[in-house]
């Protein structure tokens, strides 16, 4: 399950940005070529975040499509499935562009004052 390694990297990046403050939510953009299973990443993130400022935080995953370019007919299209065939001619001689990135887009922090007010619902700005 390569999602656990990805989750550990996300938690490390979240901790650096959070600077000791509790995290409510993190948003990650991942390329389709990474073949991430959202449920597996959620579980791995929960495990990796245990005992950190991200413990209990939600993780939003956005899958970035890959661009497929057919060498046979020149057709170009974005696709979430990098194992696709050309949608125009059915060719399989395909070049792939992009789709291999992993970016921590934002984190949402609990406000510092909320940690001192019992019963105060946490909220905070998105930071990037």
What are its keywords?
single chain, about 130 residues, alpha+beta, four-stranded mixed sheet, three-stranded antiparallel sheet, 2 helices, elongated, disordered C terminus
Poorly predicted spans: 115-128
SSE ordering: HEHEEEEEE
Distance between the termini: 28 Å
Helix content: 10-25%
Structural class: alpha+beta
Q: Beta-strand percentage?
A: 25-35%
Radius of gyration: 19 Å
How many strands appear in the DSSP assignment? 7
Please state the average pLDDT score: 87
Main beta-sheet strand count, sense and barrel state: 4 strands, mixed
| Biggest sheet: strand arrangement | 2-1-6-7
Coarse shape: elongated
- Counting DSSP H or I runs of 4 or more residues, the number of helices is 2
Could you characterize what this model shows?
This protein is 22% helix and 30% strand. By secondary structure, the chain is α+β, with helices and mostly antiparallel strands. The strands form 2 sheets. It has a 4-stranded mixed beta sheet, with helices on one face. Strands 4-3-5 form a 3-stranded antiparallel beta sheet, with no helix packed on it. The longest helix has 16 residues, at 3-18. The radius of gyration is 19 Å and the shape is elongated.
């Amino acid at each position: 399950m390569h999602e656990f390694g990805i989750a550990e990297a996300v938690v490390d990046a979240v901790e650096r940005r959070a600077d000791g403050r509790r995290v409510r939510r993190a948003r990650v953009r991942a390329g389709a070529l990474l073949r991430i299973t959202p449920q597996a990443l959620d579980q791995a993130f929960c495990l990796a975040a245990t005992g950190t400022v991200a413990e209990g935080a939600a993780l939003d995953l956005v899958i970035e499509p890959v661009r497929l370019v057919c060498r046979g007919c020149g057709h170009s299209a974005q696709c979430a499935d990098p194992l696709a065939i050309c949608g125009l001619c059915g060719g399989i001689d395909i070049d792939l562009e992009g789709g291999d990135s992993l970016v921590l887009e934002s984190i949402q922090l609990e406000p510092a004052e909320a940690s001192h007010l019992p019963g105060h619902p946490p909220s905070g700005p998105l930071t990037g």
